[in-house]
Amino acid sequence: MEVLLVSIIAFIIICVIVYLFDKNKEKLIEKFEIEKKEIMRCPVCFKEYDDLKLKECSNCESYLDKTTKYILPDKLKKQIISIIFIIIIIAIVVIGGYYGISKYIEEKERLEKYDNDISTCYDLIKNKSDYEEFSNIIEKHKNEENFEEDAYKHFYIAVDERIENIKNGSEDKELVDMLHDIKSSKLDDDEIKNKIDEKYLLAKSYSNLNSANKYIESQNYKSAFDLLQEIINSNKNKNQEIVNIATNKQNEIKDKAFEQIINEAQTQINNQDYSSAQKSLQNYKDLGNQTILDMYNNVTNEVNRIEVERKAKEAEEERKRKQAEIDAKKDKIIVDTDGKRIYKVYMASNKFSITGNFKGNGHFSVKLLDDNQDFYDLLVNEIGDYVVNTSTDVVKGNYYYLQIECTRGTWNLSWSGTYGS
Ligand SMILES: [Zn+2]
């Protein structure tokens, strides 16, 4: 745009100069003592001839034109060359200067924006916990080599300042949450990731220390002890300072915490909730308190004893259940009146066989009914003494009814194919 503007202005100036020259031609010729001379000139190869009578170019044989030639004095030529030279120098200086100044302004603006955005980055982390906007700003500066590193440097400063406040007893859940969220998101840069992990652990641990102090204030020594243990475990070989603070604090409240642990377990034991008592004591049994260890061993024995009893009871119940299942399948007399007896039987085989005899002079019949008590098969139907020896196909696993009827006489039967009596 600027180049176009400059070109247009230059073109206009040149046109004006040419116009002025043309208009004042005669005056200029006189003023600068320019000599005029008539010559012949070839319009094709521009060769010039002093001889005005010549018609043809000796070079290319074209027809020559007659024209006026202006011969400048040497002094004027030198002046013109000097002026052109000066104009060129001025033009270079002007263009160069313009370019340099605009570059300088551009760089100055870039640096201002850089500094502004870096301090915005710091502010976003320090006061707003807005990591998303922080990342957006970095994204806008991704072409600037140092910006991201610089922004994170300020990120760490802001976080450290907030951790310092937590260390002094302030709550800062927002910081812990923000670091946790960043930690859980996908970070490409391992160095940043490690650093965030480190900061998160510090923020979280100092927050937990504050919480442990609150537990101690409210005399909840067991919870304080547990939380301190968590702090010690997670900071082992990482932050010796925190480990030392937590260990000292734990030692201070140890006896009171053990007392609460023992009381809690005792209540559970009194309620015969041995497995809860076992769980309550488990984490503390190796911390050198004999009472806790003894209690733990006792409840463990109790839990094991109960478990053995439970298993024995379960086995006994299972045995009973199986027996009941078998008993349910055994032959059962369901009707037994004068002259009529019905057995409910459960088939253990696909063949039902029956043998025996009937003594007397009355009617004797043996029928098999299906599980709906509908007629299935007639096995015996006789009058007078009879020897029974017959069988029929049945469906294994189904219930049947064996119906035996007689008038005047006695019978003696036995059968196979059912679960028996
Ligand atoms: Zn010519």
Describe this structure in words.
Helices cover 59% and strands 19% of the residues. The protein is an alpha+beta fold and 421 residues long. Among the domains are: 1-34; 127-250, no CATH class; 330-416, Sandwich (Jelly Rolls). A five-stranded antiparallel β-sheet has the order 4-5-10-7-8, with no helix packed on it. Strands 2-1-3 form a three-stranded antiparallel β-sheet, with no helix packed on it. It has a three-stranded antiparallel β-sheet with strand order 9-6-11, with no helix packed on it. A hairpin with a 2-residue loop joins β4 (332-337) and β5 (340-346). α3 packs parallel to α5 (147-167), α9 (240-270) runs antiparallel to α10 (274-282) and α9 packs across α11 (290-329). The chain is elongated. It starts with a helix and ends in a 5-residue tail after the last strand. Bound molecules: zinc ion.
